[in-house]
């Protein structure tokens, strides 16, 4: 009797142990599944992060050498953030006279150029120092000066005759004097007017960008040659009027170009190509056509890449 009772107890214990073992099995499986799923999630995150990094440009910085007029007019502040947001590149802008900008390109010290002196740009194109040379936009130059207009150039249609009148009256004229596109244009007008080398106390050089030159002309109640965009952008702070405009000689044409990576392997060719493509893209050209309209009642630049 005692033996039967002991067997019954042992059988009961065995059944309970088996039941406990079966109940524990799902927990182990779930734990195993959970443990396996964690590395999978981490791996997915890592792959996504690596994909994101790979999408970034290999070299993010692009050195843009450009004329001061694109900076002083506010155009670059308008366009560059859009380019950076679209591409992941970061633009480092060097705003100088066109002559200096082209010199930086000729030395391989910039990746891409945006300038406005075709006669100065052509030698670099012909020499193969720059490639992917593209027409972007235009506006025009104007002669501005005091409302009193001592040389009476407002009554003179031709810009060459206006320059002659300024020289004859020895009215103060402020030249950029910096080998910029504006300075190059000014010198070509003096030459066309039959004045090879203007000089004297009335002819003064600022050696500075367009914005600063306008400020100096304003202080001295003097004449100067300006691109229309910079003048309109700073007009509220100036007592200078547009006194001569409209001559065909006053056309102001802008091109964008890459520094040749075959000549200068260290340049960011991929970034430069992306910037050129952005500037001539139809969407960007549309933005250029609208720039300034809301504030000045007229565009500061006219797109040309689509033409």
Overview of this protein structure:
The chain is an alpha/beta fold and 307 residues long. It folds into 2 domains: 61-138 and 253-303, Periplasmic binding protein-like II (D-Maltodextrin-Binding Protein, domain 2); 140-250, D-Maltodextrin-Binding Protein, domain 2. 51% of the residues lie in helices and 20% in strands. It has 12 helices and 10 strands. It has helices at 2-55, 68-72, 75-87, 98-106, 118-126, 159-169, 181-192, 210-220, 228-234, 269-280, 282-290, 293-296, and strands spanning 61-67, 90-96, 112-115, 130-145, 173-175, 203-205, 223-227, 241-244, 251-259, 302-303. β5, α7 (181-192) and β6 (203-205) form a beta-alpha-beta unit.
Q: Domains counted in the coordinates: how many?
A: 2
Radius of gyration: 35 Å
CATH names the topology of the largest domain as D-Maltodextrin-Binding Protein, domain 2
CATH architecture of the largest domain: 3-Layer(aba) Sandwich
CATH level 1 name of the largest domain: Alpha Beta
Overall spatial form? globular
CATH superfamily of the largest domain: Periplasmic binding protein-like II
* Residues in helix, %: 40-55%
Mean pLDDT reading: 86
Number of strands: 10
The largest sheet is: 10 strands, mixed
Q: What is the distance, rounded to the nearest whole angstrom, between the alpha carbons of the first and last residues?
A: 113 Å
Structural class: alpha/beta
